[in-house]
Structure to design on (605 residues):
């Protein structure tokens, strides 16, 4: 079964046409990198995939569940889809451990002991188990983003969405987050990553998607995408960011 | 070719000491300082006679009211009437009951200070202990003589009205604040309407409506106790003011918090209770404190609808013709009690704010 299939997706903000006829299929285990100039609709696209934004036409099916106004479908989809945000969005009033444990308890009714054990396991996996008693405000940006990744993984999602996960980080912290994401990709996680980290795209992406003005302009495996971009707008964009 | 100079690591140094300003310069350094210093001195001099009255010429202990006619403060009277001021016309042989209630409130407050303990369990304990306190005041069971609320008075009434109006008002305030921010028109209009209506009325007016108009409007045979009606008025009043404070806090919570909770699949009400509200309330501790202090003092207005709170009990005590009209001393004593309550709330809120801040930002 395809992990995500989007067809004929359109979204407007008021009269602004933010997404235009998007078709996209993601197979399980596939890693997709989405790039494009700001305002091109890439964040909007992945925010539609777990309905942080609603769409006006077209269909989105996640692991066989169509994303509609039906609340039961919506929570089924959100259980399968984890998300990591540009600004981490950790819960500042909870410790690192609670950030990872409480959502399991609240969203799934997991027992506390089990939730905490799983939280520790994933904090171990993103290599910051020693920070579990601290509050998010006491961590560096890179550490916070790794906690955010662990928090999403604790829900054991089938698909992970990353919305510019390194854009808010100081340069020396980008690497630790990218390494965590690479490790996740190596474990076979299905990932859709909005990022401008082209090194990451070359290293892990199965497919790179270039968006402009709300449309998918070009999609190709990274070697073709970087080596032989077809579209003039893609070439222009790559010239801007690859130096 | 790059050149690298070897530097030994520098030891951390303390900043150079700041020179102390001499006291004379602080007090008389410029025209404004000098003026303020002189004004302060003048104020102190002007207050000296009051000090004479309150301490040097005061009568501290006497059984004889006439000893108080020399012009000094009559603290002996406050001593004599303390029970009346603190407990009103509650039957004197039962005074242990309101005293126990005061003790219980203090114990509950002390037990609730640490934010670590906050949660559904503490709320339940508060609910049960408040019911127990009301039962203890009222009596009529287990051999406790029945004391109707018309005979309650003094400090326990003040404390119970303040705690209950804020405590019951709080969940309504949260509902009103959420309603006011809701995208659905009905909850929004109801919330806005209620908040603006009650905020536009003076508390005295709300109290009169509750205590005089409400019984007239209710059908024959329906009576709500006067204290209960007063409490309802104070609660509505507290709720709308708290609602606006909480709304401010809700607006200060980053939109990403709700999005993260949504993306994790946390249901709406659990998100509000566990994620949004705790952060919103942390952000508005100072104005919440302000509202709490104002409500404690607002309880003194219930006197005008005939409920004997501490101020009302004090006035009743001062009306005793045997003593030479010791209103000033009574009011000072009552004021001292209010001040102690309010300063305690204030100090606590500062500590709480600091604790919360230390916790979430290194």
């Amino acid at each position: 079964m395809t992990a995500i299939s989007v067809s004929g997706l359109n979204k407007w903000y008021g009269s602004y046409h933010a997404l235009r006829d998007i078709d996209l299929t993601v197979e399980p285990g596939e890693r997709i990198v989405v790039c494009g100039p700001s305002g091109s609709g890439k964040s909007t696209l992945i925010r539609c995939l777990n309905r942080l934004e609603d769409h006006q036409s077209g269909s989105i099916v996640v692991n066989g569940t169509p994303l509609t106004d039906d609340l039961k479908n919506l929570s089924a989809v959100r259980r399968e889809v984890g998300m990591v945000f540009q600004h981490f969005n950790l819960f500042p009033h909870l410790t690192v451990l609670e950030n990872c444990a409480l959502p399991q308890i609240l969203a799934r009714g997991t027992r506390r002991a089990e939730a905490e054990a799983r939280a520790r396991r994933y904090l171990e996996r993103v290599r910051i188990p020693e920070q579990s008693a601290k509050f998010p405000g006491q961590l560096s940006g890179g550490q916070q983003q790794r906690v955010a990744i662990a928090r999403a993984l604790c829900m054991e999602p089938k698909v992970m969405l990353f919305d510019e996960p390194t854009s808010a980080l100081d340069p020396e912290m980008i690497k630790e987050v990218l390494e965590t994401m690479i490790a996740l990709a190596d474990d076979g996680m299905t990932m859709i990553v909005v990022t401008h980290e082209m090194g990451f795209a070359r290293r892990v992406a199965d497919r790179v998607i270039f968006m402009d003005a709300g449309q998918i302009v070009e999609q190709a495996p990274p070697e073709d995408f970087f080596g032989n971009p077809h579209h003039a707008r893609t070439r222009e964009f790559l010239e801007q960011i690859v130096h | 070719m790059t050149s690298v100079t070897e530097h030994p690591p520098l030891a951390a140094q303390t900043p150079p000491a700041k020179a102390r300003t001499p006291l004379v310069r602080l007090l008389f350094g410029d025209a404004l300082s000098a003026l303020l210093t002189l004004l302060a001195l003048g104020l102190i001099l002007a207050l000296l006679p009051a000090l004479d009255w309150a301490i040097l010429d005061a009568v501290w202990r006497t059984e004889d009211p006439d000893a108080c006619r020399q012009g000094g403060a009559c603290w002996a009277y406050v001593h004599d009437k303390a029970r009346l001021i603190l407990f009103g016309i509650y039957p004197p042989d039962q005074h242990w009951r309101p005293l126990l209630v005061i003790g219980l409130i203090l114990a509950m407050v002390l037990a609730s200070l640490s934010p670590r303990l906050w949660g559904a369990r503490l709320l339940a304990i508060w609910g049960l202990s408040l019911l127990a306190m009301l039962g203890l005041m009222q009596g009529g069971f287990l051999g406790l003589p029945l004391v109707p609320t018309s005979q309650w008075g003094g400090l326990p009434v003040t404390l119970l009205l303040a705690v209950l109006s804020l405590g019951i008002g709080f969940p309504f305030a949260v509902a009103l604040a959420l309603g006011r921010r809701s995208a659905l028109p009905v909850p929004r209009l109801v919330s806005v309407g209620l908040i603006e209506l009650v905020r536009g009325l003076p508390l005295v007016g709300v109290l009169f409506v509750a205590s005089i108009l409400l019984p007239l409007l209710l059908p024959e045979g329906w009576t709500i106790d006067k204290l209960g009606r007063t409490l309802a008025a104070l609660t509505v009043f507290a709720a709308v003011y708290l609602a606006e404070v909480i709304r401010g806090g809700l607006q200060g919570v980053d939109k990403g918090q709700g999005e993260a909770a949504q993306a994790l699949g946390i249901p709406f009400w659990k998100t509000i209770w566990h994620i949004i509200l705790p952060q919103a309330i942390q952000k508005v501790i100072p104005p919440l404190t302000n509202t709490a202090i104002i409500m404690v003092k607002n309880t003194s207005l219930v006197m005008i609808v005939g409920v004997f709170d501490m101020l009302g009990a004090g006035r009743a005590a001062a009306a005793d013709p045997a003593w030479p009209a010791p209103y000033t001393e009574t009011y000072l004593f009552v004021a001292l009690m209010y001040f102690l309550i309010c300063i305690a709330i204030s100090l606590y809120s500062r500590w709480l704010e600091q604790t919360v801040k230390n916790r979430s930002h290194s």
About this structure: The first helix of chain B runs from residue 23 to 28. The two ends of chain B are 42 Å apart (CA to CA). Chain B touches chain A at residues 254, 256-257, 259-267, 270-271, 274-275, 278-279, 282, 359-362 (CB under 8 Å).
